[in-house]
């Protein structure tokens, strides 16, 4: 029988910090007590406390601002988190991630078409307007707008866990997605496909929204497969 790993002091302190945030009613952006106050409160040394704080910061539960203090992080309520240690992806992993997006995002587009009311569609329209201003340059801004469109569509589906899954997948392969923009080299086509998805969602046509999102993502995956197979890329 394997020995059960005993929690360390840092493990216990991490849990107590999370309990402090939850029971104290703290929300993202709220300031927490100082390092000195926390050390005294939990009766631990500063190095031990800092180790726990680093763990929490790595998952986005807190944010440590130099010269300002400790704040509740924006990811405190997340169920799914991207790997903060991810550096480089192998080709097979990248294709699997794109395959996952093809499975997940089209049904979410259908759910968005079914659920979203006109006011909730405003963020989708705004990000596409932003993308339209950067079709002839400023690829970094165009990439951000494109990714915001996919995140906003997933959010409108109304399932917070699946929205976080999509957000995590986009975060994991952000650099590769920027490369796709360069290789695809048809920013207008990409933009028009996004517009078509939005039109289907606005029309509350769930089947069309799902099909157009799937076709769009299959296009992206095809480009990546071509790049990985071509010795010139």
Summarize the helices and strands and which ones pair or pack.
Blueprint: H1 9-23, H2 35-42, H3 46-58, E1 62-65, E2 69-72, H4 91-115, H5 122-132, H6 139-156, H7 160-172, H8 174-184, H9 187-202, H10 206-229
Antiparallel strand pairs: 1-2
Helix pairs in contact: 1-3, 4-6, 4-9, 4-10, 5-6, 5-9, 6-7, 9-10
Could you name the key traits of this structure?
single chain, 233 residues, mainly alpha, Arc Repressor Mutant, subunit A, Four Helix Bundle (Hemerythrin (Met), subunit A), 2 domains, two-stranded antiparallel sheet, 2 strands, elongated, disordered N terminus, transcription, DNA-binding, WH_DNA-bd_sf, GntR family transcriptional repressor for pyruvate dehydrogenase complex
Descriptive account of the structure:
- The protein is mainly α and about 230 residues long.
- It folds into two domains: about 10-70, Winged helix-like DNA-binding domain superfamily/Winged helix DNA-binding domain (Arc Repressor Mutant, subunit A, Orthogonal Bundle), CATH 1.10.10.10; about 90-230, GntR ligand-binding domain-like (Four Helix Bundle (Hemerythrin (Met), subunit A), Up-down Bundle).
- The chain is built from ten helices and two strands; from the N terminus they run αααββααααααα.
- It has helices at about 10-25, 35-40, 45-60, 90-115, 120-130, 140-155, 160-170, 175-185, 185-200, 205-230, and strands at about 60-65, 70.
- Strands 1-2 form a two-stranded antiparallel sheet.
- The termini are far apart.
- InterPro entries: GntR_C, TF_FadR/GntR_C, Tscrpt_reg_HTH_GntR, WH-like_DNA-bd_sf, WH_DNA-bd_sf.
- It comes from Nonomuraea jabiensis.
- This is GntR family transcriptional repressor for pyruvate dehydrogenase complex.
- Keywords: DNA-binding, Pyruvate, Transcription, Transcription regulation.
- GO terms for molecular function: DNA binding; DNA-binding transcription factor activity.
């Amino acid at each position: 029988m394997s020995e059960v790993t005993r929690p360390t002091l840092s493990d216990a302190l991490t849990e107590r910090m999370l309990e402090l945030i939850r029971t104290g009613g703290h929300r993202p952006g709220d300031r927490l007590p100082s390092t000195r106050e926390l050390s005294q409160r939990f009766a631990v040394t500063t190095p031990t406390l800092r180790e726990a704080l680093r763990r929490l910061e790595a998952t986005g539960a807190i944010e440590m601002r130099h010269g300002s203090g400790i704040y509740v992080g924006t990811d405190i309520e997340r169920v799914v988190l991207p790997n903060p240690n991810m550096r480089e992806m192998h080709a097979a992993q990248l294709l699997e991630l794109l395959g996952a997006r093809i499975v997940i995002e089209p049904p979410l587009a259908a759910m968005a078409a079914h659920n979203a009311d006109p006011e909730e569609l405003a963020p989708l329209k705004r990000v596409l307007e932003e993308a339209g201003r950067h079709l002839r340059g400023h690829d970094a801004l165009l990439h951000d707008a494109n990714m915001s469109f996919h995140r906003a569509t997933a959010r409108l589906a109304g399932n917070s866990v699946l929205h976080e899954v999509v957000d995590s997948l986009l975060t994991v392969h952000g650099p590769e997605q920027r490369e796709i923009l360069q290789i695809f080299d048809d920013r207008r086509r990409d933009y028009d496909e996004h517009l078509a998805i939005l039109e289907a969602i606005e029309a509350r046509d769930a089947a069309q929204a799902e099909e157009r999102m799937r076709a769009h993502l299959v296009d992206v995956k095809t480009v990546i497969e071509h790049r990985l197979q071509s010795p010139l890329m």
